Amino acid sequence: MKETRNWTWHIVAGAFIFVFLGLHMIVMHLDDVVGLFTSGVGATDWESVLGRSRMSFFAVTYVLLLGAALYHGLFGLRSILFESNVGRAWQKAINVLFWLGGLCLFAVGVFQAVTTFLHANAAVG
Predict the structure, then answer these.
(1) Average pLDDT for consecutive 10-residue bins of the chain (125 residues)?
(2) pTM (2 decimals)?
């Protein structure tokens, strides 16, 4: 039952990544065509980057995308490792390592997203 729930979240995270990574690709690589956020300047020009950094929508979606990508990737790698019939002790070690590593990476990413958002908005005022 627990593995079924974890697998379901793995699939949900994959779908979430598909949608929000697609949005990221549109904004970063097709915005000259679509013109949603840059209004005439390139997606990587400083004015455009600073403008997106000021939007809470981007900070929240980057954090959600990071969480979904970490879960999806680490759970997928964990599943591959467990299928190689490692012992119970190795399974526990892998679980602990992935939890700690995933939480550390998530904390660094959240810190970066929040710091960028706060600094970009402080520059306005």
Answers:
(1) 89 95 83 63 75 88 95 96 92 96 98 93 74
(2) 0.84
